[in-house]
Amino acid sequence: MKNYDFSQIPFDQIESVGQKSLLKSDLFCVSWLLGRYCNYSCSYCWPYASGKNKDHRPTELLVSTMNEIKRQSRERGFNSFHFSFSGGEPTLHKGYLDLIKHYADDTLNTNYQSIHMTSNLSFGKFWIKKYLEVIKPIDKASITASYHHEFSDKEKFCEKLLLLQEKGIFITINIVMIPQVFKKLWIDAHYFHHAGLNVTLKPQSNPTATAVVDGYAPWMRELMKKGLPQQHKKNSLVRKSSVRTSKNTLNQLVKKKEQTPKKNSQSITHSFQVEMNANDGKKWYIDQAERFNAFGFNNFKGWECSSGYRSIIIREPDGAIKRSYSCRDEPLGYIDKGFQLFDKPQKCISKSCVSSADSKIPKRKPGTNWPLYPDSIQPKSINLNV
Ligand code: SF4
Predict the structure, then answer these.
(1) Which long-range contacts (CB under 8 A, 24 or more apart) does 215-219 make?
(2) Which residues pair with 203 in a beta bridge?
């Protein structure tokens, strides 16, 4: 990691990009914003991102939507799943643990299942205990913990995360590096990093989430590009409690594909999440798609993108089901009215792709043939029949 400099990546020559687990498996990704309701009121949080009204949908509707997502995904050849929940604060939904239990109970019918949530970690240790019980069967669990310096107690926040990490949950702390309090946040980030937790420094985005705000000095931008690399914990890659007995899990599949010996410093890129192909055939890697905005690598207009075909987002308050957060396309449907996935990857028509949930979805420049998924997925042969 120390020898791998992300600023050396020739972003203007990159022809394809995608998260490795998506490029190399039948993984279908769902990013699900359960509502805007949040118990914090951070001064820098934009009105579209949180609210004080409980705007949650009934649990039964969430469960039937999950079932329909899986039905359509399986029809297209995808039978591994990654569901990522966010809000507002997702853990405030009364049926959250029931929904996750429903998801976990289906694990043995899939090739692989993982779960992620983005949370402010305002829940207590009793909730953590229940959560750990419910997610037991799931192959991999991860949490992005948003650190809000105005509301969170730094020590307690750290303590809860270390407990979750100890139980095999992959933890990343996201800190929105507000330009006005950058130095304080940088010190807090170091505190977490030295405690053994992963920290991602995120630039603050504008009110429409289409660009990064002004106000960053060059040194700040530099720190966000290079600072605090991810620390990969061995015990978080495969959960010991997973019900799966088959050796063919997604983690093992990806690992197996990566066992080809690499030369020199490239061996350190094995744990990086995102893979890129340059026009000279050279492969490049980055630890997390979150970093793309810091490099201004977020315009894929005209590229062929597999979002909407092998990934969706669901967001409130309108319950829209879309290709991804940044996409300007019409929604694929609505949570209460039904939806239809694409039957193959489609062209990107959007000017910017700023969410990491979007930019990690495999995509390639027009006219190139870089693979977006394994050969086993055959879009043209799908009989939609719906
Ligand atoms: S904006 Fe949407 S379609 Fe365009 S690259 Fe991003 S995810 Fe794909």
Answers:
(1) 215/179, 215/180, 216/179, 216/182, 217/179
(2) 177
Task: Summarize pLDDT for 281-301 with one digit per residue, the tens.
Answer: 999 999 888 889 888 899 999
Instruction: Tell me the C-alpha distance between 308 and 329, whole Å.
Output: 10
The encoded tokens of residue 190 equal 């170091």
As a whole number of Å, the end-to-end CA separation of the chain is 48
**How buried is 123 (Cβ within 10 angstroms: 0-12 exposed, 13-18 middle, 19+ buried)?**
middle
* Token digits of residue 194: 């030295």
Rounded to an integer, what distance in angstroms lies between the CA atom of residue 271 and that of residue 249?
Answer: 17
Give the model's pLDDT for residue 268.
Answer: 61
pLDDT for 257 equals 52
The total domain count for the chain is: 1
Domain containing 163 equals: 25-252
Q: Are 142 and 169 in contact (CB under 8 A)?
A: yes
Rounded to two decimals, what is the model's pTM?
0.85
- 131: helix, strand or coil: helix
CA 302 – ligand 1 centroid, Å: 9
Name residue, tokens 């089901």.
321
**Ligand 1 centroid to residue 28 C-alpha, Å:** 16
**Hey, which of 307, 342, 352 would you mutate to test ligand 1's pocket, going by the most ligand atoms within 8 Å of its Cβ?**
307
Phi, psi of 223, deg, nearest 5: -65, -40
Rounded-to-integer distance, Cα 14 and Cα 244, Å = 37
Q: Is residue 151 part of a domain?
A: yes
Task: Annotate 251-268 with three-state secondary structure.
Answer: HHHHHHHCCCCCCHHHHH
327 C-alpha vs ligand 1 centroid, how far in Å? 5
Q: What is the DSSP letter of 317?
A: T
Q: How big is the chain by its Cα radius of gyration, in Å?
A: 20
**Is residue 134 in a domain?**
yes
Domain CATH number, residue 136 = 3.20.20.70
The answer to whether position 88 is within a domain reads: yes
Residues of the chain with pLDDT under 70: 1-3, 47-48, 209, 229-240, 245-268, 379-386
Q: Side chain identity at 201, as an amino acid letter?
A: L
Residue 130 lies in a domain: yes
Q: How far is CA 350 from the centre of its chain?
A: 20
Cα(326) to centroid of ligand 1, in Å?
6
Does the Cβ of 324 fall within 6 Å of ligand 1?
yes
| Ligand 1 lined by 354 (C-beta under 6 Å) | no
